[in-house]
Structures are given as structure tokens and as C-alpha cells.
Amino acid sequence: MNDDLYQQAILDLAKSADGAGRLEAPDATAQGDSPLCGDRVRMEVKLENGRIAALAHEVKGCLLCRAAAAAIGRHARGLDAAQVAALRGEAAALLAGAGAAPSWPELASFAPVRPHRNRHGCVLLPFDTLCAAMKA
Amino acid sequence: MKFSAHEWRSHFPLLANHPRLHYLDNAATGQLCAAAFDAVTHHELTQRANVLRGTYKLAEAADAAYENARKQAAAYLHAVSADEVVFTAGTTASINLVAHAFGDGLNPGDEVALSLAEHHSNLVPWQMLRARRGVVLRFIPLAAEGRLDLARLDETITPRCKLVAVTHASNVTGAVTDLAPIVAAARAAGARVLVDGAQAVQHGPVDVHALGADFYAFSGHKVFAPNGVGVLWGRAEALAQLPPFLGGGGMIGRVSVEEMTYAPPPRRFEAGTPPIAQAVALGAALDWLRAQPWEAMRAHTKQLAQHLVDGLAVLPGLTFLGPRDMADRLPIVAFSLAGIHPHDACQVLDAHHVAVRGGHHCAQPLMAHFGVEGAVRASLAPYNTEADVDALLAGLREALKKLK
After folding, report:
1. Looking at chain A, which terminus has fewer C-beta neighbours within 10 angstroms, N or C?
2. In a 3-state reduction of DSSP, which class is residue B69?
3. What pLDDT score was predicted for residue A1?
4. Which of A97-111, B137-151, B196-210, B315-329 has the weakest average pLDDT?
5. CATH of span B37-290
6. To 5 degrees, how large is the angle CA B385–CA B387–CA B392?
7. CB A66: neighbour CB atoms within 10 A?
8. Domain chopping of chain B, boundaries
9. pTM for the complete prediction?
């Protein structure tokens, strides 16, 4: 049932809005847009030796998008570009119903999104935007 | 003539097979009517062949069916002649055809007037034309409730205007455009008028000559026919002046290695094998629709829309995108919910078997006007009932509880 998408873990994650906001003088920023629904994510990072020292995001998007951004805000510190890309791959694999248990426990709560392919982009947009920021 | 929504619903096989479905996404696509379904089956089983130049009986039957569909479309639009009907792939293809065939004859500085309420299909082709030809786009601003601000037409339709392209009715607000003053302003400027009829055609036959349009575009799937087919109606003398857009078989007069000549309209604009079975089904759907009791059907959908608007108005944090009154509007109702994303609301509604659409509805400038990223939209057709609207309202109350 679609309501499973909005289990408490997802609602709590979105509500936590971990990492929401802006950074002063970020080293890299990226903006991601969803052509499907018009959602927009902005990711800002401060880097030390190629690793994320601080991160902030702004999300104009749905609950799934906000929850994914919050998971990133909670865990992304210390990651380098390759690790961010790997995390994006884990999220995509989870949505595709493949892959091992994800590194971040929060990612598992996105499993009910699997059958709703039009919503996969909502979860992946923050990851894609962070990947773009790390390449910037 | 009497009208029963329940009886009407029985003419739509998908709805008959899904009695629990509350289908309220008719502005996106109407369900396929039995007349269209039967026409496709009949055509494919008895007269499937390519059109034009076949000399065997099957091909002659296909030709006759295809040209009959042109007459049926002409009748729905009150066109003077079937030769004014060009079959295309849909509204978007029809508008792109004009944007190329008419637009590529424009010069830098020439103006095309649109409105801020347009669907992207009647915006992006003109933005692309601006990039190709250096034309200037001007926009009719919006007044209260998203209706076009016709008091300021002289700012938009200037003496340099060559074409006005506006929606007959908004796919978001449902507001029906008062075309008469726009057509008058266009005529005064010597400009052509293209009307995007994608939404209006679902709600009854159209009289393109009474509207004063030069071009009228719509899609088959909005009028309960298959997708992949649409119509560009063009006033005969307007079509005659246009060069072709796409080149290929079927649109030529004569071809040699050195040169080619073009067929007269409508064939000039139908390069390649057209969507034959789809056109035949579209014709059947339009014929069936023309015989329906539209006055009673419009009264029915208007009453349902009023019931919907009344039910929505009491929900906390709800803002309408468009008029709340029922005058000069289609039964399309869009709204935003404070703190709830449209896709989340739609997903919860799906669990209640309610099919509505959320997002920007391919009208991002209109969303910007309303100051929102997206909205939920319920769009009603004559087969909808009060039970459909009540299921939507109950689902929204549940969404508010769950997502707030």
C-alpha cells in the first residue's frame, strides 16, 4: 500500500531536516532540478583534503526528497567524492531492489519506494546534487 | 436529452473494469471510449493498410476511413472543409508545426504574443523560435485568480505582433479564455491567432470560426480517443500560405533530383505514414461525442466542480490556484496544501484509489505566478460522480493527518 511510503521513520527523517540551511563561504555548491515535478535541491560543502568537512542543503521538494537530504546531512561528513558516488549507487541499488544492506541505516526506510518508479528520482535528487557538488 | 453519469461511465471499458477507481486526471488524459476502442478493432481487423495510392480494396478502405475521420474532426470543430484538418501526433506536434511553418517566416524583432498561463507545449516551441529567428515574445499578464488580464492587451499585442498563441482554457486553473478581445486585437495588428484547444475539446464541440481563430490545436487522447494522434485545424487560406514543416512521402506534388513541389493542405503537413488507426478512432470518438447531451453534461460537471470546490475550501492550509466561481471555467481544480508536497498528497490519494496529478503541470511560469512549485489538480469528466469527489476529499483529509 502506498501509505507504507510514509512510515514513521521517513516522516521523522524528513522532519529532522538534518543539515538544512546554508554555509558561509562553501567550497563547492550544486543545484539539482527534477524536470518531472520541479523540485529543487541545493547542496553546499566545505572540503578539507577532498573530504566533506561541513555540508548544508536547501530542499524545495517532497517528503522523500527532504528525508534523503536529511540522511545526507546526518552522515556525509568525512566522505570524499568517490564515497559519495558509492553512497548514491547504494541508494539506487536499494530502489532497484538489489545490492547489499546499505551503509546508512536510514536508507533502508526508502525500500517501500521501490515499486513507485516515478518517485525514485525524489530520493536520488539530493544524492545526485551532492555528487555534482563534489565534482564542481 | 437526459444524462446519467453512471450510464456514460459504462461506455468506458477501463472504468467499467475498475469500479473502485476514482479517475480524476482527465486533464492529463481522458479514458478511451468504447466507440474509439471499437473503431480501432474494426479498422485493424478489416481495413489495415497504408493510406494514399494503394489500388487494392483494402488500401481503398483504409483511405476512405482515414479521410472520413478528417470529416468527423471537421464536424466537431465546425470547420468549413475537411481539408482544413491536418492530422498530427497531438497538440504539441500541432503547435510545433505552426512554430516552424509560420514561425520560420518571421524576422528578428517580429513579435509573438502568448500568455503567462500557457502549458509548456505552447511556450517552449516559441522560445525555440525566439532562439532560431530572434523574434520577441510578449506575454499577456494574469489578473486575479489566474485569469488573463485582458485590460492590458495593448501592452502585449503591438503593431509588430505577427501571431497570438493562447490557451482556450488553462490546464491548471480551468479558466476559459475570453478570446474575442484577443482575436480583435490580433486582427487590428494583422496577426494570426493560434488557440491551444487541448483542454477545451474534452468538454464539447468547438466552433473554430465563431472563435475567430486561424489555427486550433488539440490531441486525441483528451477526447477519449487514442494517443499518438491530434489535429491542427487551420483556416484554409492560412494553411495555404504555409510551407511544409516535415518532409517525406505523402506531402509532395512531384520530386526530381533537382527540385520538389508540395501537395496542397492538408497533405502538405502530413509527411510519412500518418497515425491511421488512431485517426479513425479519433473520428469515431468525435462523432460519438457530438451526439451527446452536452448541456446536461456540462451542468453535471459544473455541479461536481462546485461540490469539489466547496469541500476543498474548508480544508486547513488549502489555497486554490484559479477561480473559485463556476463561470467561464472548466471542471479543473488545482490547489496547494501548506506544508504538504503535491506528490506526497497524490501518493496517499492513490492508496484511496483516487487518481489525481501533482506537480507543476507543465506550466512552471503559471506556478511562479502563484508562488508555488507545484499543485494537486483534480480534473473532472462527465463520467465522474459525487462519489469520486467525496473519495478525493476523504483522501485529502487522511493525507493532512498523515503528512502534517
Report:
1. N
2. helix
3. 40
4. A97-111
5. 3.40.640.10
6. 105
7. 25
8. 5-31+293-403, 37-290
9. 0.93
In tens, the pLDDT along B48-72 reads 999 988 899 999 999 999 999 999 9
Q: Which residues of B touch A116 (CB under 8 A)?
A: 347
Q: Which residues fall within 8 angstroms of residue B233, CB to CB, at 6 or more apart?
A: B73, B74, B77, B79, B84, B85, B86, B208, B213, B215, B216, B217
Q: Could you tell me where the beta strands, DSSP code E, fall in chain A?
A: 28-33, 40-48, 51-60
Identify any residues that bridge with B218 across adjacent strands, giving them in sequence order.
B231
Q: What is the pLDDT of residues B9-29, one digit of tens each?
A: 999 999 999 999 999 999 999
Q: What integer is the mean pLDDT of A35-50?
A: 91
Task: Give pLDDT tens digits for B272-302.
Answer: 999 999 999 999 999 999 999 999 999 999 9
Ranges assigned E (strand) in B286-353? 318-320, 332-337
Share of chain B above pLDDT 90, in %: 97
Q: Which residues contact A100 (CB under 8 A, 6 or more apart)?
A: none
CA atoms in the 13 A half-sphere facing the CB of B20: 5
B362 is catalytic: yes
Instruction: Give buried/exposed letters for B273-283 (b at 16+ CB in 10 A, else e).
Output: ebbbbbbbbbb
Nearest to B351 among A1, A39, A119 (CB): A1
Interface of B with A in 325-364 (CB under 8 A): 341-344, 347-348, 350-351, 358-360, 364
Contact B168, B117 (CB under 8 A): no
Contacts of B360 in chain A (CB under 8 A): 37-38
| Domain made up of A2-135: CATH architecture | Alpha-Beta Complex (3.90)
pLDDT at A2: 44
Nearest by CB to residue B359, choosing from A3, A38, A64, is: A38
For B214-247, give one letter per residue: b (16+ CB within 10 A) or e.
bbbbbbbbbbbbbebbbbbbbbeebbeebebbee
Strands B111-115 and B136-140 come out as parallel
**β-bridge partners, B319:** B336
Provide CATH code, domain B5-31+293-403.
3.90.1150.10
Predicted pLDDT of residue B404 = 80
Q: Taking CB atoms and an 8 Å limit, are A64 and B358 in contact across chains?
A: no
Q: Which three cell numbers stand for residue B164?
A: 497570438
Domains B5-31+293-403 and B37-290 share a fold: no
